[in-house]
Recover the amino acids of this structure.
């Protein structure tokens, strides 16, 4: 616990309180969270990993000082990155996800009875282990039994997947550090090639409000490869600005024609009506992507 | 300009930079914005009013250190509080709004040709004047000619409106200070009584993520008075957590049966598809309101 002497990225003592400061230099903003307890800290070969009990969001996974996923709103992200592709694909037997060592999307995907195998590719083995210890309060036996965890570079792993992938989720963090390779043109091509004949992928594609350029590049790259590309959005309170985008690309089925009856009933965010609604884009997003 | 000696609520010098710190004690969070220039500062009889040029959101109106509306995302709020009621009401001739001295909703309402009169009730005359000087970059002659500005306590004004109101927007700020009276049970009853026979009101009803209790109270009070009450939501990046709710209550038409063809085409956020989508609530909101 080095917080008190200021060596831990992002954490600062303020009088008798500990705060985490998420520095957002590109946005010229900063977000501060009061920490009730620093639960875990370590330095992995890739990054500084910590888990903090925050007053606002419960437990929070922090990598190099940047909040990644929280206990109180992580389900919004996990459900929204997973279910829209899962209900669109007619028979998702093989699911894979790159990034997202917390295995939240794997737990959501395992709710579909037709799923036979889930590959989770997380470059940093310590992230998976820390998440399992501190954030996995709602473990799923079925997800555990289906999941093959690979501690590998996702951009390399995807070039030789063990089987063709039906649904591939790109749960990447910001475009620097360990995730940088998940933003290259070559990676998008590898994603396309890794998918089965009617495969579907979903990319976490950033804030449409703060980084329209990034969303536009993701969309263009996917459009150059896939016949069906659709952007959808939601609000994730612990993410900067809240408004967040995902981009779905499909070799076959259009998500607007997906079968909502397959949606599991034990969700906290998504439902049959929210899914089509999420594809309705505000004018400022639609016009930037046209 | 008192910023440099720290007397201005919320502003702080950090080295050579000026920052605004939005202290959110109930959320145990703080949000910081780098200020390129402090454009205006004054102390009115009600509050400290400032306008800052922020790097993240352009010009920002700040009251007692709390950001209210920004140049870059204010249109989302203004369009979302206004158009859903305007397309629902079959013939909105008389529109009124309580709070919201920036007159953004008035500009949106004036886009409907049937509107004959707009009453804007803003308790602090200086807020209206400061907004007119610094934030009204897109003035509307039609809105100006239709608008009657009242510098009065909205909770008192609404008891004797000049004419029955067809569409009434409650653009209230947080439930303390000048806005506290807009959260009482008596106020909701006055709102009901002020409306015409098929009148519609929309309340800004807070963050469903951080203040579900507040949203639930607003919903319950409106349900006890109106036959049709519907909650809708959007993401407003400069608001804490982004995710934000509005609650519409109608004496007649259900918004889900509103006529989208009446929507103006010069909007930056809302469109015919976004409006019905905004009424689709995530499970965690729906179950809290059931």
């Amino acid at each position: 616990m080095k917080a008190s002497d200021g060596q831990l990225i992002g954490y600062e003592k303020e009088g008798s309180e500990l705060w985490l400061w998420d520095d957002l230099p590109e946005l010229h903003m900063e977000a501060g969270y009061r920490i009730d307890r620093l639960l875990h800290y370590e330095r992995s070969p890739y990054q500084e990993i910590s888990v903090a009990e925050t007053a606002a969001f419960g437990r929070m996974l922090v990598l190099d000082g940047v909040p990644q996923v929280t206990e109180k709103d992580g389900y919004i992200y996990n459900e929204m990155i997973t279910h829209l592709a899962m209900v669109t694909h007619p028979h998702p037997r093989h699911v894979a996800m790159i990034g997202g060592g917390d295995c939240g999307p794997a737990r959501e995907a395992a709710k579909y009875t037709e799923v036979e195998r889930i590959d989770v590719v997380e470059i940093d083995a310590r992230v998976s282990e820390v998440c399992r210890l501190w954030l996995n309060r709602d473990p799923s036996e079925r997800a555990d039994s289906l999941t093959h965890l690979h501690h590998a570079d996702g951009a390399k792993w995807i070039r030789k997947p063990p089987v063709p992938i039906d649904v591939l989720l790109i749960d990447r963090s910001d475009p620097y550090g360990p995730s940088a390779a998940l933003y290259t043109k070559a990676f998008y091509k590898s994603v396309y090639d890794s998918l089965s004949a009617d495969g579907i992928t979903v990319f976490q594609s950033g804030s449409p409000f703060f980084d329209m350029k990034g969303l536009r590049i993701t969309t263009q790259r996917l459009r150059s490869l896939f016949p069906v590309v659709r952007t959808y959005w939601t609000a994730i309170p612990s993410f900067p600005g809240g408004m967040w985008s995902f981009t779905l690309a499909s070799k076959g089925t259009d998500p607007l024609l997906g079968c909502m009856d397959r949606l599991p009933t034990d969700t906290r965010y998504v439902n049959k009506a929210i899914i089509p609604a999420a594809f309705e884009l505000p004018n400022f997003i639609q016009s930037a992507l046209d």
Remarks:
- Chain A has nine helices and 13 strands.
- Chain A touches chain B through 44 residues (CB under 8 Å).
- The mean pLDDT of chain A is 93.
